[in-house]
Write a structure and sequence with these properties.
2 copies of one chain form a homodimer. Chain A is mainly alpha-helical. Chain A has one domain (21-148): Arc Repressor Mutant, subunit A. Chain A has helices at 21-52, 57-64, 68-80, 96-118, 123-133, 139-148; strands spanning 84-86, 92-94. A two-stranded antiparallel ribbon of chain A has the order 1-2. The interface between A and B is large, with 41 and 41 residues. Chain A binds a DNA duplex through helix 1 and helix 3.
DNA sequence: TCTGATTTGTAGCCGTGGCTACAATTAAGC
DNA sequence: GCTTAATTGTAGCCACGGCTACAAATCAGA
């Protein structure tokens, strides 16, 4: 529902009322989930353009493990949100906002995988878990991860 | 959609086809998301019963930051899935399966928070992030976390 | 070129998890 | 005990993200 088109990976701190801060934690997790799909698509489209030269809906669908119809609907949402563009029967492209999001998501993904590996999680499990985890890692945690990995 | 009523926190390994394993990662993240709500409710109900002596829909709703109608609908889903019981206008209780789930979820939550803190994330940020992260941490990662924290 | 396979898009269905509004029941206070 | 407040439950709406089925457009090969 945000009217702003910034798509920060984080959200405002918001000084918390007495004991209802548990509710705020859940709300935050829910809103993170709401943008997770956009983030996944943005990163994937960026990857496909980088490696294949183009991002076709069918390839996106196959990579995500969903039907092409689902992918196309989600791409429509990306367009509504100003993250992607496409003309009929042509491939999908990212707007500057979409590119920025993709870059941040990719960096975050790597950081999460690296941290998991650093604490002893096997590489393949780290890749799997990171796919779900990354959307819930705040900027603050990311900074801590970077520092921990010696990339302060 | 699972017919089994076990609710493992993990899922089967499944030997991966050629390069479609990216799709499998996304599918795993999606299925984790599907059980996240159940997990949150189970843990919260267990907490409320422990600290307040009972779990009332209104309290559940307030703690989760949703309307009571939403909470009641979700509780209905817990009942359908065999995790909770309740009689009309009486409180909510967990079945043995629900209790087990709650216990595992609570342990996992603590482990995730502790790991985040151990790598340098501030306590409050760790609590917030853990709420979203925990649902995507595999048993394998949990074991790594425990070992890293010196609780092998 | 034109015919058939592939890709893309559309329509319409479903379950989930939000919500508000209203009804019913229980609990509390006079 | 009755009235009122609080709680609980129901109904019905919405957007999302899945899906299948079908239609339209593009692309490739004969």
């Amino acid at each position: 529902m945000p009217k702003s088109k910034t798509y920060k990976l984080d959200a405002e701190p918001a000084d918390l009322p007495p004991e209802a801060d548990q509710a705020h934690r859940f709300e935050k997790a829910r809103s993170a989930q709401a943008t997770a799909l956009l983030e996944d698509y943005a990163e994937l489209i960026s990857d496909l353009i980088g490696t294949e030269g183009e991002a076709r809906p069918t390839d996106i669908a196959r990579r995500l493990g969903v039907s092409h119809a689902t992918a196309i609907k989600s791409i429509a949402r990306l367009k509504r949100e100003g993250l992607a563009t496409s003309k009929l029967y042509r491939g999908v492209f990212l707007t500057p906002a979409g590119e920025m999001l993709a870059r941040r998501v990719r960096a975050r993904h790597r950081l999460v995988v690296d941290l998991l590996v650093a604490v002893g999680v096997p590489q393949d499990a780290a890749e799997v878990d990171a796919e779900g985890i990354e959307h819930h890692v705040s900027e603050e945690s990311l900074r801590a991860f970077a520092k921990f990995l010696g990339r302060a």
